[in-house]
Design brief:
This protein has ten helices and 33 strands. The chain is mostly beta strands. The protein has an eleven-stranded mixed β-sheet, with helices on one face. Strands 10, 11, 12, 13, 14, 15, 25, 30 and 31 form a nine-stranded antiparallel β-sheet that branches. The structure holds copper (II) ion. Copper (II) ion binds at residues 416, 445, 447, 606.
Length: 649
Amino acid sequence: MTDTAVRADDADRTSREHPAHPLDPATAAEYLAGRNIMAAAGLLADPVRFAYYGLEEAPKDEVLAGPAADRRLRAFLVNTSTGDSTDVVVSLTRRDVVSARTLDPRTDGQMPILDSDFPAVDEIVKADPDWRAAMARRGYHDLSQIRTAPITAGAFGVPDDDRRRMVRVLAFVQAREHDLAWAHPVDGVAAYVDLVEKKVFKVTDEFELPVPAESGDYDDEAVRGPHRSTLKPIEITQPEGPSFTLDGHALRWQNWSMRIGFDAREGLTLHQIAWHDHDGGHKRPVIYRASIPEMVVPYGDPKFRYWQAYFDTGEYLVGKFVNSLELGCDCLGEIAYLDATVTDDSGQPRTVPNAICIHEEDFGILWKHTDIFNGSAQSRRQRRLVVSYFTTVGNYDYGFYWYFYLDGTIECEIKLTGVLFTSAHPGGDHPYSTEVAPGLAAPVHQHLFSARLDMTVDGLANAVEEVDVSGLPIGPDNPYGNAMVQTVTRLTRESQAARRADGARGRTWRVISTEHANRFGRPASYTLYPESAPVLLADPASPLAARAGFATHHLWVTKYETDQRYPAGDFVNQHPGGAGLPAFIAADKDIDGTDIVLWHTFGPTHFPRPEDWPVMPVARCGFVLKPTGFFDRNPTLDVPPSPHHCPPS
Ligand SMILES: [Cu+2]
């Protein structure tokens, strides 16, 4: 094993009460201090639980002005006996409560799912006589074999649902200790649970289908067969160590610098991403803050499970389920890790070791040419800096990867793996699911992510152009019909900037500096290249489209506002709809030559394949940001040839 871990974080740094930088993640000591402030203010009387607890980032102007920003934490508190929900902000600097707002669930929605909701739901469902009878009718009397999956309820206008804090529960059979429960769904029956009343208020029992029997336990040699013996080792060695440096949460690599953050809701956050001309030269900001602050996974079966659509970030909090990564398994090579500190339901800090993985990778050819006239034969290797983490939300696992390349390219890639959500297959041709094992179905669904890209291309004054390509018809200026052009449309107001991708036109969006130009007098810019996959397929009039408004367009551009952080709104769980991006653009602000935020929707529409079962090979999605006239020429001419293998230039 040649992999090595560079310990980037020491115990002192994670426990200190005064972090080095206002954008550093909240520390364990800070969470405890904030908790004490809330307790002293009487906000934590039992049974109040923390549905979210994290850093309330200082406003951008304060951070840019200097280090004296007020350090604040935000907590979503739920009283599990009354359902009362409070959105609290405390100042650690002033040691007081800044604000405490009580939510109205009918208009604000509900707080996210609590850790303790999972065992509570299991107990509530298994005690319910109607649900037990539904299980008994299907032959299940030993409920210790049943696993319950609490699924966020959505909002469908059903009377009384809007006053309840609720989930809907599906059941799976795990007959043996190591069986894969997802292989054995008990379909047709769901329990609707009121988490405050702690009871099942409705059981839907609509049809019976046999519980699929084939084992999905891919750890079992009887299922997977013996391990193949034909793979020779691949070892990554960097005898002189990696080329990056990590100082606390500040990361430097080649021309790039940035700060690394982590949040229980958003997961990995990147801050103050900048390009430095040559070594230690002029610093050029590109992105003030980059994150994936929402994702929704809507399912496409209109019958019994029409309500199945989870907002993994706003409803479950993806960052809370961050994996602790294993050197040599999850990350290969010369790795630096950062720990992540999140909290449990009672606001007590929990530090996940090796949560964020930082390393550099060879990425094939950077540029290459053999010149037919002057005989020059040159080849250079591309490299990228990788900042990533993995999270497990129920059956799925998601890896969030950010790549920074030598040539100024930035890429976000999400790796989707884990186990498909399953149902029983009704037989024959079923339009809404794929049979992946005998009698076992995987319903069609989408994974729609929202990237929030707070752009600062050469400063705060930015604007966005939509660029389409097309051919021109034959005419007097184009007699042979070969002309092709770009059509550039400036998006000047928020209402005009809710846009769809268009693969047939090669549509991209260019973020330009309205203050800095390159040597050709053109604005310094970065271009967003979307994948142009479908947006939300739910009907625009559907309850889901109202709640996932962000997912109805590939691009939104808003004027920067400190409190606009979540594309589906602050409180997503059971929200009636309309929050987030559709509300943000209602004032239709000017976005031309000002501080703007890009919001980009992307992700696959997943008609499962048999090959996705019983565990899914990684599927990928993402987007790329490329410098477009940000530099005056190829910025990698100074990259030397690889020392051992290539002829010197
Ligand atoms: Cu999927």
